[in-house]
Amino acid sequence: MYQPTIETSSSSSPLLQSNDQNPTTTSSFGRTDNFSSGYTMYEINNLIQDYVYPTDEGVIDASNMYKAMYEVASKFVSVSQSCTSMTDKSVSAVFNFGSDLLTQTYDCGLTQTEGNYRTSGVVKTSGTESFALIGWSYTESVTGGTKTTRNAMQGHYDTSTNDVSVNMAYLVDYPTDPDYSVRIYIRGNTITGLFSLKLVKYNTGGSVVSISGYGYSRGSNYYLFKVTSTGSSSDVTDAYYCFESSTTTAEIEAMADAGSGTVPANCTGYDTNLPTMYATDGSDSATVAGSFTGTGDYNTDLTY
Q: How many CA atoms lie within 13 Å of 244's alpha carbon, on the beta-carbon side?
């Protein structure tokens, strides 16, 4: 299973390689509004900026594509090290990924509790290919009660082709504050740097952003994004954004949130490869505990 390089930078050569991974709210380029959660350019930057473990742990969450790939890879390793062999079989995910789900069988399983973490996963390695299907939960005491995080993920990596696939959906369930959920889809190649992806971030307080992207994370190439958001700080509908692969966080921070109503010239033709965007009404998201369909106390245990 693919693993970004620990301590240095993502070996997948992210689109953004800025040293400023926690940008300030006032741009040196003269931007007058905030560069923070809820603003379109911030959300795009957060999706594609570099992720370095452990430096960025707790700072960048799994709405970042490289963090998501790291999470799936690390869970694959932890399950593989302790799983029990089983009859090769299909296993249902604990979230309905719909047509995004990779059809696959698995031959080794593990369900265990370690402290406040509950992990249930099945894996398989066949030749150069590795597969993982995981459900996990985490609880912690916070003001007002218990915060529960639920996560469903699926991953695939082929060491011969360097193709990587990730499906992930998670929900952070607070006792009093608005809940927060993310669903992310990634298909790409860690050598060519060509990726297609889509993301929806849903906050039960009312804001949601849906992003679809296609393009290259390296070389003299471009990346196209299409964004729709509601209830956010800079709502847009089917707005396009075209970046050079070398674009930095500072340059994105300086860009206007409004985007373009048509595909910019440098990204002509890229739009035909954009994945279908997730809905902004929460129907594609894990917005409540019941969105998870597994067993166990938090509906995140697999049945295998």
A: 6
pLDDT in tens, 199-241: 999 876 778 999 999 999 888 899 999 999 999 888 999 999 9
Residue 150 contacts residue 137 (beta carbons within 8 Å): yes
Cα gap 169→137, rounded to integer Å: 12
Q: Please provide the DSSP assignment of the chain as one string.
A: ---PPSSS--TT--SB--S-SS--SS-TT---S--STTSHHHHHHHHHB---TTTTTTTS-TTSHHHHHHHHHHHHHHHHHH-EEEEEEE---SB--GGGSPP-EEEEEEEEEETTEEEEEEEEEETTEEEEEEEEEEEEEETTEEEEEEEEEEEEEETTTTEEEEEEEEEEE-SSSPPEEEEEEEEEETTT-EEEEEEEEEETTS-EEEEEEEEESSSS-EEEEEEEEESSSS--SSEEEEEETT--HHHHHTS-TT-BSS--GGGTTGGGGPPPPPPSSSTTS--SGGGB--BTTTT-B---
Which residues of the chain are under the pLDDT cut of 70? 1-34, 204
Q: Please name the residues in contact with 283: beta carbons below 8 A apart, sequence gap of 6 or more.
A: none
Enumerate residues 6+ apart whose C-beta is below 8 A from 133: 91, 93, 104, 106, 121, 122, 123, 153, 154, 302
Distance between CA atoms of residues 277 and 226, nearest Å: 8
pTM metric for this prediction: 0.89
Q: How does pLDDT run across 248-284, given as a tens digit for each residue?
A: 999 999 999 999 999 999 999 999 999 999 999 989 9
pLDDT in the model for residue 209: 95
